[in-house]
Amino acid sequence: MKIEKISKEPSLLLTGNEATALGLAKAGLKFYFAYPMTPATSIMNFLAKMEDLNVKVIQPENEISVINMALGASFAGAKSAVGTSGGGFALMTEGLSLAGQSETPILIVESQRGGPSTGMPTYNLQGDLLFVLSAGHGDIPRFVIAPGDAAECLYYSGLGLNLAWKYQTPVILLIDKDVSENTFCVNEKILNLIQSEKPLLWAKSGDYKRYKITEDGVSPLAFPGEKDAIVKADSYEHDEFGITIESEEVEKMQEKRLRKYETMKKAVEKLPAVKVYGNQNSNIALVAWGITKGAAKEIAENLGIKLIQPIIIEPFPQKQMREVLKGVEKLFSIELNTTGQMAKVLNSQGIKVDGKILKYNGRPFFVKEIEDKLKKLL
Amino acid sequence: MNQKNLDTYCQNTWCPGCTNFGILEALKRTVSELIERGIKRENFVFTCGIGCHGKNVDYLNLNSFYGLHGRCLCTAQGIKLAGPNLKVIAFVGDGDIYNEGISHLIHAAKRNSDITVLVHDNRNFALTVSQFTATSPKGFKGSSTPQGSIEEPFNPLELILVSGATFIARGYALKIDHLKDLIVKAIEHKGFSFLEILQPCITFFDNRKFYEERIYEIKSPLSKEEAEIKIREWDYLNGEKSKIPIGVFYKVEKPTFEELVLKG
């Protein structure tokens, strides 16, 4: 038997979790805090093993400690991330709210497994989308990003960490069990697209105000140890200096964070938030996110229809979505959950979904089964 | 160093005569003394939970992270990891850290994180108008236990000793000079330093007389065995005749968590 030589350039062989770890490290991650939880655990294991990446892995007593430690490290100037699955993220939601209120940067990896509750730890469902979009008490500006393979994990984890620091707010990287733990070929050049970006820093003149009211809602950062700066972060509502207040003045700080959210929304439109595959001119489109985009892409190509993959889901990329939906008359969502959570998100943005193809036994979609179900809907 | 510089413009909302004023005063004297001894002002960082104790950070013109109820020791450890040259001091309350955040306290002591923990132990949830905490005596009549609490208190010093703390002390909020000396020693200790401060709550649990009849200063240092005996001398019950020792009970040098994480 003769084996033909492949002309393809060599590429990295990575799981989604390994790619996530590499992307974070390339974007300047200093500390990764985590409590073991399938299917996110291999991120911490990989970072602990790969000492050359120079990321310190800390394993605190529980997920509540995980997020509060990470916020302390970020407050002191070190880029920090945490990782968990749905149940661990539930424990972190109090800390998520603290990150929003205290405007402390943090990247959170939420690798979904079958839920609710302990669910099916080693099987895949996409049941946490609505949870991560609304988690935490109070209004919290956040980014939610859902990569669909290891290459996207690599790129978007790096992007996500930089966004967390640029906008001083939580970024949730929502991945699927099968993205986390499956092995993919990844183009090494993606690493060149990721840099450790410098956040907006205090100009070292005048009194430092941690929560300075600005037009775009972003206040310059300084860290404890900085001469002539007193840095006060606060979980209570606060004034510009970071002193607790409950007067009607609080409105100004709420509005500052609202303006920051508007700035984030504009930024999303300039990022690769939505991807399109298959026949761009088809008036029939599928929408699939996370791991599901793989099978959906094959179907779109087979049937000559369009596939839309939302990757940045919050703030919602309205303009980009409107653009890719031009000419689409029928839209079907393909998801691994019982209720069609992405369809609900689209509906909330005024986008009508004509049908849902759902699967929830923990196993991935097969091309044939989507095709059969789709034919019945068409 | 003018101590006035340590004050902020924030209006103080503690009850008039609150013994937290004593702790704040001791703390300001500590910071002034340590700044005179060469620690840079910008290298102090305070964290706190939620409770009457937490207001301290609003009144101090120093770096701070006003954290979550029960969680600020986690935040403090994160700060120390990212800024190993910083002096990280956590204000916590008894409800805050003996109830809500007890797991974090035990594990911070276990890993010998190089932070200082000052517990404002007024033995009730005062900010929420008086409910029993882990150190309230049995029979404590709070707003949720009008007939008296049915639970016995635990002895936090005994707990922290077995958890692995490398510095254990107890002070009294109204013995300000003695308390200041203890805070200085706690901050200067390399490793996890734990200072339990008996803080009478003049509004909901005014046990000043009880404490002042029983408190006496111990001579340090003590061996671990001697420390165990001294720590058990008073079990946080009320009405008994035992004396209440204050001072440094235990101190030992061990590598810190941050040293071990950051080496190499």
Automatic annotation (TrEMBL), chain B:
Gene3D superfamilies (UniProt xref): 3.40.50.970
Pfam families assigned: PFO_beta_C, TPP_enzyme_C
Recorded coiled-coil stretches: none
Top-level taxonomic group: Bacteria
All residue ranges annotated as the Thiamine pyrophosphate enzyme TPP-binding domain in the record: 50-197
Record's keyword terms, sorted: Iron, Iron-sulfur, Magnesium, Metal-binding, Oxidoreductase, Thiamine pyrophosphate
Domain Pyruvate ferredoxin oxidoreductase beta subunit C-terminal: 201-261
Any Gene Ontology biological process: cellular respiration
Cofactor(s), names only, from the UniProt record: Mg(2+); thiamine diphosphate; [4Fe-4S] cluster
NCBIfam families in alphabetical order: PorB_KorB
PANTHER family with a match to the protein in the record: 2-OXOGLUTARATE OXIDOREDUCTASE SUBUNIT KORB, 2-OXOGLUTARATE OXIDOREDUCTASE SUBUNIT KORB-RELATED
Name this protein carries in UniProt: 2-oxoglutarate synthase
Species this protein is from: Candidatus Wolfebacteria bacterium CG18_big_fil_WC_8_21_14_2_50_39_7
